[in-house]
Amino acid sequence: MTRLFMILALSANLAPKAVSQINAEQVLTIGRNVLSMDDYMLAIQYFNQAIKAKPYLSDPYFFRALAKLNLDDYAGAEADCTIAIENNKFKTEAYKLRGFSRQMQGKDSLAIEDYNIGLAYNPTDKNFLFYKGVALTELGKYREADSTFNALLRQYPKFEEGFTARARLKLLANDTIAALDDIEKTLSLSKSQINPYLMKAEVYWNRQDWINAASALDAAIRLRPELPELYVNRAFVRYNSDDFFGAMSDYNYAIELDPDNPAAYFNRGLLRYEVKDLEKAEQDMSEVVRLNPSNVHAYFNRGLIRLEEEKYKEALNDFKVIEARYPRFYPIYYAMAQAESNLGNPRQAGFLIHKAEEMVEGYVHDPEKNPLDRPAIAASRSHSVKSNGEESQESESEVMERFNHLVTISQTSETNLSYNERIKGRVQDRNVNVEMEPSYALTIVAPPQTLKSLSNYFRELDDLNQMRILNQTLYLTPGLNSSDFSSMMEDLFDIASSLRSKNPDKLRPADFLLLGIVETMLRNYPAALAALDDAIAVNPRFSVAFMARGYARYANALSELKIAKDAGNEQEAFLDRQAYTSLLQDAIADFDTVLSLDPKVVYAWFNKGNIYYEAGDFTSAMQAYNEAIKIDPDFGEAYFNRGLAYLNAGNKTQAFADLSKAGELGVIPSYNILKRMK
To answer: Strand pairing partners for 442?
Structure first.
């Protein structure tokens, strides 16, 4: 069966009248076949249909959970497994999958409960034992974890992942000799795992045995040459082995692999600073600041570099960034004093030195009453430094060293968990811009086929099309993408020209509507609004025209605001913002009119929600999406946008739930956002 045939078959299955006629077992079989081909989004749609037909079955929920898990939607997978277990409490694989999903959410205690149930049915199950051992490790229950891994490895003495997981446990328990023993056992069974080499590198790293650490990282890089963090770490090891050129080569390649890697830029900048390549060192620190504007270490080092370049004003600006954030970090005042002195301000320089000395004196006399700020890069157990910008406190003697210290990626690798097979077809790995699903517009172009179950049905629009009083069929479609109708731009211009050339007195409301729709597609919003005003003037109950005008007003408001922002005049932008708000209110009024004529027009509620979202009124947006979902509980885009609204309002839990549901209903960007939120 080809993918196209499957999509067409699915579209047919989505028709409401066909639900009762669905052969649930057949749809489930097709869904499992699709799942085996790693097309998780399409598989979920098949499982949805099986669930609608026979909600009391266990398998459709289980396999939908498996598809969700492969999309990193662990909360959604957990919820589906719970229903699968309620429908069939003897389905042990569902306990395994739910435990795994819980474990991936950090719910290790709950995961262990599931694994214990599974082990009661099958005490020697490899995956139950392995997952349980890892969960116990995460909870810090090292003795119980060790016992579980021992039981696992007695049953499966060639299970290399088991030795790797136990090695990590030994490392966490500071038993490096036992950890190295397990690592060597893993490597004797298989040399294709990266984690044993990373753990081996960490052991030698902590011992400052740079030669063996480098050798372990060499092996890791051979396995995963595409990972820039491995080169950052090897560069650190090479630098400590006095291999300056090898370190520089690794930083260069890390940046080639990942042009937005702040750790590589920071370290390369320090190395360039060390050999007095000041111009390039400054460029590297500027890249770090661009990528992470809150990185005070980059500001400090760039300030020092600029001092040596005699760019005193720029250096002073860098130091002031640190002063604003850490006003009791006394070393910054000495650096600022040097800049002021070189700028010819000896009095200000003296004041800054005096301020620093007062801080130090106060601290010496009473540290608790006069604490000093200690901005420091967060360090891992191995004293390597994470590149995520987190901060912790260090002793004062370490502060300045840390400001000029090479940054490394945390060495300890977590035990890689995978559910049975390697995950493929991962739509959640396709980076997407976090943008709401677009509002629905009237067009003369049929919307593309998608996985979403929405029928785009609008009764008044359907009635109008059935009357056949226009030469064009009108459609309701999400957004107006020029690429969808770029090939027919000339036709659009011809339609608009033909309608405009006619005597307005002879144009019917439907003609004005068509003209307004075409002008909106051409993004000629003033002309579109004028035509739609005429349609409504002739027929004040023309709900389709109100729907079209509401969208045109909304699109016009967005266009006007963009023009104001591009102009760059703050006063004009403020005035335009007021006009923008007024235009949005007019658009809402049109959708309210549609709803007064027919409260069940789900798209009017959805579009209202988008307008409120655009205006930053997330509470009103959520209320509008709520109404849309009440009308159509399968409205994926409404769940998606409501999830974003919850996210903006700070309710991460509800945002997770809505985005998970949106993904289940075919809104593909949901899974990428869920992954990034985690």
So the answer is: 476
